[in-house]
Design goal:
heterodimer, A: 2-enoyl-CoA Hydratase, Chain A, domain 1, seven-stranded mixed β-sheet, two-stranded antiparallel sheet, 9 helices, B: eight-stranded mixed β-sheet, 12 helices, EC 2.1.3.15 (chain A), transferase (chain A), zinc (chain A), fatty acid biosynthesis (chain A)
Chain lengths: 284, 256
């Protein structure tokens, strides 16, 4: 057969297409921070980009595995009542629930962290962007209330796109409700550590994520109040992509330390151990 | 809710007549003295804060201000406070606590100002602190939503014992435009968003978000009807002791 430009091009393309079909999807991963492409197993147990160290967003249950094996879940069955009867919301919830194995966007319970007992909460960015609604708002409130009753410190990993739009004003009220529970926990002389995960924004930043005694953050996570697009529209100017990176927010004085995933358990254990030690009681 | 009613609320909440909060403050509180500065980084004209007497009792007054003319509106970012404004508000509230003065907040804001400087200065952190501190203040708090009350920027002035709103005002998780832009990627669908969000004050009262819906006429006659309602409420506050006050404020937000 004569080699014409026509069949010369077509043949290898067909072969390429067949070859592509034989590569299972998800074998290669792409880092959304640095653009690196790599074999997925290289992300390892902590789900880190092998090039830049960015920690990929993981579900709350995956995150729990990185922190402890000793965990007793609280309030697992709290579920939203769809207060606005928002169309298609029930389906959206069902999808999120099956994806995350959670009833709403937070996992809470009693945990052992490096030998120290704490009330642990982990928000789930895969559950409708970790948005704050009535069910996860109630679960976080109870986390603080239970910790206060049992005299435990709270460690809360935050990730959220902000208030849950589908629940309207009731979402906004969660900010005050949780803040009240945080206040009572502090008044009882108990420690609250927040760990900022990617992304933590909106109403969560404007309430409990910022109310912790100690604020840690994961490298390259985003922490902010307003969305970057909204800010750019306000000032009519493009902002650098890392404008709200925790590295920048740290420079502005709002974060105590940036701690990579591999070191978080040890750092939390260290802090919890220090604050579990006896303090000043004064003469009795 | 029909479109006409939604429009009436949105237009009423955003009417120019309500933009001049300074006039409302001066009508309600004849001897009002304004204070300035957050003692950290500056002053913000989007927040009017100070002290006055009403019915011979001292009160702290915190009000958001959109401003009347374009020049003033640019300075106040159309009534969107910066971190300096929220810090000034909290500073005045702390003085009120020390001096046993009840606090009255008057709200007409689309939300906290979302620019790069506010973000760098910790807008989210400042709101979080105001919410936390307001919930603990040992004096009575009354908030009145005059026009718009948008998102965390409004909540950070409304963690109060009593929250009232005018008949044509709105208290929302986000502006209807922002809501439409997030949910349907089209800010022009704001009326549909408003309907879906249930911006009608009746709904908010049912939910316990506000205690009272006031007719627009309370602003007539130099705000005299509103002044009388505030005086009545201050008398009611007198019948509560501190423990009851804090417990009731706690319960008010715990039920959501």
């Amino acid at each position: 057969m004569a080699l014409t430009p026509h069949n010369f091009v077509r043949h290898p393309q067909k072969a390429l297409a067949t070859y592509h079909h034989n590569v299972p999807s998800g074998i290669f991963r792409y880092c959304n921070k640095c653009g690196a492409k790599f074999y997925f197993r290289r992300a390892g147990k902590f789900q880190l980009c092998p090039e830049c160290g960015y920690g990929f967003r993981v579900t709350a249950r995956q995150r729990l595995k990185m922190l402890t094996k000793d965990f007793q879940e609280w309030d697992a069955d709290l579920v939203t009542q769809n207060p606005l009867d928002f169309p298609n919301y029930d389906e959206k919830l069902k999808k999120a629930q099956s994806k995350t194995k959670l009833q709403d966007a937070v996992l809470t319970g009693l945990a052992d962290l490096d030998g120290q007992t704490a009330a642990l909460g982990i928000m789930d960015p895969y559950f409708i962007m970790g948005s704050l609604g009535t069910a996860n708002g109630e679960r976080i409130t109870r986390l603080f209330e239970k910790a206060t009753a049992q005299k435990l410190p709270v460690v809360l990993f935050t990730a959220s796109g902000g208030a849950r739009m589908q629940e309207g004003i009731a979402s906004l009220m969660q900010m005050a409700k949780i803040s009240q529970a945080v206040n009572e926990h502090r008044q009882a002389g108990l420690l609250y550590i927040a760990v900022i995960m990617d992304p933590t924004t909106g109403g969560v930043t404007a309430s409990f994520a910022s109310q912790a005694d100690i604020i840690l953050a994961e490298p390259q996570a985003l922490l902010g109040f307003a969305g970057q697009r909204v800010i750019e529209q306000t000032i009519n100017k493009k902002l650098p992509a890392d404008f709200q990176s925790v590295e920048n927010v740290y420079q502005n004085g709002f974060i105590d330390a940036i701690v990579p995933r591999t070191e978080q358990v040890a750092k939390l254990g260290q802090l919890l151990t220090i604050f579990a030690a006896a303090g000043w009681e004064g003469e009795q | 809710m029909d479109k006409q009613a939604i429009l009436q609320i949105m237009d009423g909440a955003r009417s120019d007549a309500k933009a001049n909060m300074r006039a409302i403050v001066e009508q309600l509180f004849a001897d009002f003295v304004e204070l300035h500065g957050d003692r950290v980084a500056g002053d913000d004209e989007a927040i009017i804060a100070g002290f006055a007497t009403i019915d011979q009792r001292k009160v702290a007054v915190i009000a958001t201000n959109k401003g009347q003319e374009l020049k003033e509106r640019l300075v106040t970012h159309f009534g969107s406070p910066t971190p300096q404004g929220y810090r000034k508000a909290l500073r005045v509230m702390k003085i009120a606590q020390a001096m046993h003065a009840p606090i009255i907040t008057l709200i007409n804001t689309p939300g906290a100002y979302p620019d790069a400087d506010a973000e760098k200065a910790g807008q989210g952190q400042v709101l979080a602190q105001n919410i936390s501190e307001m919930l603990q203040l040992k004096v009575p708090l009354l908030s009145i939503i005059i026009g718009e009350a948008g998102s965390g920027g409004a909540l950070a002035l409304a963690c109060s014992d009593q929250v009232w709103m005018l008949e044509y005002s709105m208290y929302t998780v986000l502006s209807p435009e922002g809501f439409a832009s997030i949910m349907w990627k089209d800010a022009k669908l704001s009326h549909e968003a408003a309907a879906q969000m249930h911006i009608e004050p009746d709904f908010l009262k049912e939910q316990g978000v506000v205690e009272q819906i006031l007719p627009e006429t309370v602003l007539e006659n130099q705000c005299q009807p509103l002044q009388e309602l505030i005086i009545q409420q201050l008398k009611l506050f007198d019948k509560t002791n501190l423990n009851q006050l804090l417990q009731q404020r706690r319960d008010r937000f715990r039920r959501f």
